[in-house]
Design goal:
By secondary structure, this protein is α+β, with helices and mostly antiparallel strands. It has eleven helices and 24 strands. It has three domains: 9-170, no CATH class; 186-364 and 473-563, Rossmann fold (3-Layer(aba) Sandwich), CATH 3.40.50.1820; 370-466, no CATH class. The protein has helices spanning 191-197, 259-274, 308-324, 340-351, 409-419, 428-436, 458-468, 470-485, 502-513, 542-545, 549-560, and strands at residues 9-11, 30-34, 42-51, 70-79, 85-87, 93-94, 105-120, 126-129, 146-147, 151-155, 161-167, 169-170, 183-189, 202-208, 223-227, 283-288, 301-302, 306-307, 333-338, 359-362, 396-399, 405-408, 489-494, 523-527. Strands 3, 4, 6, 7, 8, 9, 10 and 12 form an eight-stranded antiparallel β-sheet that branches. Helix 4 packs across helix 8 (470-485). The longest helix has 17 residues, at 308-324.
């Protein structure tokens, strides 16, 4: 299926207005049709993309930073084969709000339909959302999404001409990873999540077994749980030396040459350490919990996503421990991760304090909403602009280690607005909203702020505070949970985190240092000029330490648990 977009020139009139409403046939720059070769009618988000860069397809070039290309989106329902969907100046876009603003010139054009399914949830709401299809909730490569091959066109919004674009490709299924000697893959149907969503919902995990697991059948093992974004497989593991014939690839993010070879070497080094004589024998897992809103659930219960916290803690983890001979006790489970995984590690430790025996949270997503990146959700009136009577100053959203800003918070949110309405973009700010917000009257998450203007909803902010502001919850509930958190909390962050996440860590550290009866007795550490996602290793640069989560935190926990394990706990059989 390599058919090109069909281009037919049709006469039309053009009127210029703001990017709101719906375009009619007479005002269209483009119309999109689907012939029906892949099935019946569709719901979803239809996106039209323009690019001046031939290096990749436009669908892979939509980003927060200066290199982004153009995207315009609209919701479609019950889109029938042969029906034309129109794009004109009314469809909202990023980084230009309207097609009418696009400079005349040559562009590569592509269209894609992010397909939605209908869910009849247990809360009585019917919602239309994109189901993950094994890719980790990525709109531009999700199997089953329909798209066109890009072609080059000349576009001038002043010309009275409309082009008909035909969708005639479908993204194919993804092959599931195969089991190996050490790595196993499991998937279970979650009753809790299936009941909530009104259809079968699954949780998965990649399980790394310890050396000697097959031979030592009487040994039961601790469980090392790494949280984070959707893992296709148990990454960072390689049983052979690096490929000597592989061409070097430069990492622009870290300004390091041959980084692909470094990654392979670190993965092989981990294999050697894991199977070596001194490494603690534990079961390590990476969880798959992609859902209709994002590539993972944030591992907590949510009005919009359902009871993922309970499903992971009380369904998935006990299943893994039973299947692979885990000890099955809270003291013998610990969590670690970075960024999203850092927030999740701290969140499950706080919300299930007896079920986990330690957390190592690196560069966590905002853990104190007084510093929701650079927004104080409880005092600021607007997220996009600094409070001022006469001047509008945009809040930064992304920086490098020298403070150079490449995107504002408004940029990030408007990109999401173009990719999906009702918190359905599958991106970062929308998933925070989907996890933390109460359900709205339409069944979708209530907005923490107006996506177009940035005006903050103080009622939603208070709901966030009571349910998901981890620093606030720890302080509020310390009298009840402090004893179960003593010695378990470890937080690490670079002081030049790209997303300003260190600000929330500072506030949380202050709160933790003020704890009494008991004192939290944990660890908070910072990396000097370190970016996202620094994880506590003061001896290595970030591009190395980020590849060593398992090697860092598994031995660290195995040593610390000696002082926290309950009397009579087995601390020796799994140290062979």
């Amino acid at each position: 299926m390599r058919n090109l977009i069909a281009l037919l020139l049709l006469g039309c009139s053009l009127s210029v207005s703001a990017a709101t409403g719906t375009t009619k046939a007479d005002d269209a720059f483009f119309s999109v049709i689907y012939s029906g070769q892949f099935g019946g009618n569709y719901d979803g988000r239809l996106m039209l993309m323009l690019s001046t860069d031939p290096a990749a397809e436009p669908r892979f070039q939509i980003a927060d930073g200066p290199g982004t290309q153009l995207v315009f989106g609209k919701d479609v329902e019950n889109w029938a084969p042969g029906e034309q969907i129109y794009f004109g100046q009314a469809e909202f876009g990023y980084p230009m709000a309207s097609l009418a603003q696009v400079p005349a010139g040559e562009y590569y054009i592509q269209v894609l339909l992010h397909v939605y399914e209908t869910f009849n949830r247990a809360d009585g709401h019917t919602v239309k959302l994109p189901m993950d299809n094994g890719e980790g909730q990525q709109w531009n490569r999700s199997p089953g999404n329909l798209y066109s091959q890009p072609i080059k066109i000349t576009f001038d919004p002043k010309e009275k001409a409309s082009r008909v674009l035909s969708i005639n490709e479908v993204i194919p299924p993804i092959e599931e990873p195969a089991d190996s000697e050490y790595i196993k893959h499991i998937k279970i149907r979650s009753k809790l999540l299936s009941d909530f969503w009104g259809q079968d919902m699954y949780l998965g995990a990649h399980v790394l077994l310890p050396k000697g697991w097959e031979e030592n059948k009487k040994v039961k093992y601790p469980l090392a749980i790494m949280h984070g974004h959707f893992p296709y497989d148990f990454g960072g593991w390689r049983t052979t030396p690096p490929d000597e014939d592989m061409p070097c690839e430069y990492s622009a993010r870290f300004d390091v040459d041959c980084y692909n070879k470094i990654v392979q070497q670190e993965a092989y080094d981990f294999y050697q350490a894991w199977t070596g004589p001194d490494f603690p024998r534990v079961i390590a897992i990476k969880i798959q919990h992609a859902n209709p809103y994002y590539d993972d659930s944030y591992a907590v219960n949510s009005e919009n996503l359902g009871p993922y916290g309970d499903a992971i803690t009380y369904e998935l983890i006990p299943h893994i421990e039973k299947e692979f001979r885990g000890i099955g006790k809270g003291w013998a489970r610990f969590v670690y991760g970075g960024s999203t995984g850092g927030w999740e590690a701290l969140a499950v430790q706080v919300k299930y304090p007896k079920e986990y025996g330690g957390c190592y949270a690196a560069c966590p997503d905002p853990i104190d909403f007084r510093a929701y990146c650079l927004v104080n959700l409880y005092e600021d009136k607007n997220a996009y602009y600094l409070d001022s009577k006469f001047k509008k100053t945009l809040r930064p959203g992304h920086r490098d280690y020298l403070g150079n800003v490449s995107a504002t918070l408004k940029d990030m949110n408007l990109r999401e607005r173009a990719l999906g309405s009702k918190s359905r973009s599958g991106q970062q700010w929308d998933i925070w909203e989907a996890v933390y917000s109460p359900v709205g009257s339409d069944g979708y998450p209530q907005r923490i702020w107006n996506k177009m203007t940035g005006d903050i909803n103080p009622e939603v902010a208070q709901y966030w505070r009571e349910n998901y502001d981890l620093a606030y919850i720890m302080k509020r509930d310390w009298g009840k949970i402090g004893k179960d958190l003593e010695g378990k909390i470890h937080i690490y962050c670079g002081d030049m985190d790209n997303y300003y996440l260190n600000n929330a860590v500072y506030l949380t550290e202050t709160m933790l240092e003020e704890t009494t009866n008991p004192y939290y007795n944990g660890e908070v550490d910072y990396g000097d000029r370190a970016e996202h996602c620094w994880n506590g290793d003061q001896t290595q640069p970030n591009h190395i330490s980020r590849l060593r989560y398992h090697r860092m935190f598994i031995p660290k926990w195995a040593d610390e648990i000696k002082s926290r394990a309950p009397k009579g706990a087995d601390l020796t059989s799994w140290r062979y």
